Amino acid sequence: MNGDNDMKLYLKPGSCAMAVHIALEEAELTYEIEKVDLAAKKTERGEDYLAISPNGYVPALVLDDGEVMTEAAAILLYIANLAPEAELAPAPGSKAYFELLSQLVFISTELHKNFSPFFKPNSGDTWRGIAQKNLETRLSLMNERLTSNDYVMGERFSVADAYLFTVLSWAQVVDISLDAWPHLQRFVARIAERDSVQRAMQAEGLK
Ligand SMILES: N[C@@H](CCC(=O)N[C@@H](CS)C(=O)NCC(=O)O)C(=O)O
C-alpha cells in the first residue's frame, strides 16, 4: 500500500535509477515509482519534472517529509541507512563504509559516466572513443576485484552491487561486449537472479 507520505522514486526504465529501485526492493521499504519523460521533462502524470528536480535527470527520490534527494550514490547510501536490518552497507563511519563510498563513486564517475556517450546520439566518435578506452581499463579493474568475491564489497550484497549491475546491464544495450571480463559476466548473471532485481525490472516494464 502506498500512502501520501511514502517515498517516491522518479525513474526512467533501465536507467541508473534502477539501482535505487533495486535497493528500495532489497530494503523492503514502502515507496512508489513514477516514470519521467527525460526529453520533455514531464512525469508520467504530466507534472513538470524540473519543478520536482531542477537538475532534470533521474534518479530523484522524494522522501517521506517531501524533500527531494538526488545523485544515485547518495540515495543508495540513504536507503542503506534507512533499513539497517537489510545490511546493504557496512556500519556507518566504519572503514568498510568508506570503502563502499569509494566503490560507489568509482561506479558513478568511472563506469556510469563513461557509458553516457553511447546513449547520446550526438556524442560523436571522439568522445565515444575516449569513453570506450576508459571503460576498458576500468572494467578490467572491476573484473579483477570480482575474481575471488561474488560482490563488490566481498561476500555480502550491498547497494554497490545494485549500481554495478545496473551499469553493466547497459553493455548489451549499447553493444559493448563483456566477453573480455568473465567475472563481470558472471556477476551480471548472478545479480539478475535476485528477487529484488526481478521485481524492479518487472515494475519498470523491462521483463
Ligand atoms: N550525477 C547523476 C547522473 C544521473 C544520470 O546520468 N541520469 C541519466 C540516466 S542514467 C539521465 O537522467 N539522463 C538524462 C539527462 O541527463 O537529461 C547521478 O549520479 O545520479
From TrEMBL:
It comes from the Bacteria. Its EC number is 2.5.1.18. Keywords: Transferase. GO terms for molecular function: glutathione transferase activity. CDD domains: GST_C_Beta (cd03188), GST_N_Beta (cd03057). Residues 4-87 form the GST N-terminal domain. Residues 93-207 form the GST C-terminal domain. This is Glutathione transferase GstA. The lineage of its organism: Bacteria, Pseudomonadati, Pseudomonadota, Gammaproteobacteria, Oceanospirillales.
